[in-house]
Each structure stands twice: as C-alpha cells, then as structure tokens.
Design a protein that fits this description.
Number of domains: 2
Shape: globular
CATH topology of the largest domain: Glutathione S-transferase Yfyf (Class Pi), Chain A, domain 2
Radius of gyration: 17 Å
Order of helices and strands: EHEHEEHHHEHHHHE
Oligomer: single chain
Largest sheet: 4 strands, mixed
Strand order of the largest sheet: 2-1-3-4
Structural class: alpha+beta
C-alpha cells in the first residue's frame, strides 16, 4: 500500500512541503513525482490527475486522486489512526485542528510578502504592518498551543499535523529574518534542524535556477546550518 504524492519544486513549494511531511514524519509509504512549476510543464504534468490542478496532489493506493492539504491530512489520519497524527488529548486535538485550519486560510500578508524559499536568508527585509500583524497572530497561536503541550519541542509536545502545516511559516521567518520572540525563534530552529526538513531542503538544492525565483534584490546570507 503506497501513496503517490505529486509535488512542486522543494525549494519554493510551501504546500508541497506540508503534504510531504504528512507522509514522511508519520512513516507512511509513498512515492514522489515532481511537477514542473518553473519548467512550463505543469499543465501537462497535472493533466492525468484532473480535476486536481494544484500541488500537492495525493493519489491513494486505490487510485483515488485528491488535493488540498487539509483534506489530505484528515484522510490520512482516518486511514492511519495508529500513526497518532493528532494529539491524543481531546482539547489539544481540537486546538491543533483549529491551528491547522487557520494556517490553511490565513496569513495572506506574510505569504504574499515572503514567498517560501530555502536557498538563503534575505537581510534587511522591511516588515509591513500587515506582515507584523500576521507574525503577532502566529506567535499568539503558538503560545496557546504550548499550553496543551507535554514534553517535546513541538507545538503540542509530540509532532502533529499542526507542525507539518507551520513548517513553511518557520522557513519564512528564518528566510526573511523576521522579528519574533524567543519561543517562536526556538520553535523555528527546531523545525529547520529536524532531519526530515533538512532532507527535503537538500533534495531541493540539487536543482539550480537562472534566474532565481523570488529574488528580493537585496543582501543575503547563508541559510543557517
């Protein structure tokens, strides 16, 4: 029983990262196929998966095709209750679902101003009031989640689907050197140092781009080790 996950370029596709972490972090069997977001082949690559039109797209072992990461998350949880993809505690589980849903529909200012890129750190990024408001909201949600946490570095102690959804947020915070408090910074560092995240980034860096997507035109420094 193997899932087929269709993803965009790892260095830039934040939603693909979320979909991949759902499978990788919970030990589910899968194969990945790269869709050409930047090579001009996306429409042709996605045609056999219609009516899905965006990455990530997941094909279940029975051939069912589905897209949208919230739907994918709940389907995988339903199919693999033993994987403990949500917190065991009912209140924590409800809160984790809330955080995941807010991530899926919110923080448009942060997403627009700071596209995910895993190549380098942009220095001197000017934070708008809208981006600052998104960051403030994210920090409030993360602090609220930690009220349900036991031992462990993740939002609810043990790794959950909520952490998969917020991994690209951590990449944005680090990749644009955004101003956040100590707890948020520590959580971002835990996310970026996780072996799964590092494996994803390393695979993405095997592909070079000319020109580089999302070039902000300012000074940069190396991505933190």
């Amino acid at each position: 029983m193997t899932y087929d996950l269709f993803i965009g370029d790892r260095t830039f596709s934040s939603w693909s990262l979320r979909g991949w972490l759902m499978l990788e972090k919970f030990g589910l069997p899968y194969r990945t196929t790269l869709i050409g977001l930047y090579s001009g082949t996306m429409a042709d690559d996605m045609a056999p998966l219609a009516p899905a039109r965006l990455v990530p797209t997941l094909r279940l072992p029975d051939g069912t095709v589905m897209s949208e990461t919230v739907a994918m998350a709940e389907t995988l949880h339903e199919r693999h209750p033993e994987a403990a993809m949500w917190p065991a505690d009912a209140a924590a589980r409800a809160t984790a679902r809330w955080l995941m849903a807010e991530m899926a529909v919110g923080f448009s200012a942060l997403r627009t101003a700071c596209p995910m890129q895993l190549s380098h750190v942009n220095e001197g990024f000017a934070v708008s009031e809208a981006v600052a408001a998104d960051l403030q909201r994210i920090e409030a949600l993360w602090a609220h989640a930690r009220g349900f946490a036991g031992d462990g570095p993740w939002l609810f102690g043990a790794y959950s689907l909520a952490d998969a959804f917020y991994a690209p947020v951590c990449a944005r915070i680090v990749g644009y050197d955004l101003p956040v408090g100590a707890f948020a910074r520590d959580y971002c560092e835990a996310t970026l140092s996780d072996p799964a995240f590092q494996a994803w980034r390393a695979e993405g860096l095997k592909i070079t781009y000319d020109p580089m997507p999302y070039n902000m035109g300012g000074p940069t420094r190396d991505w933190p080790v």
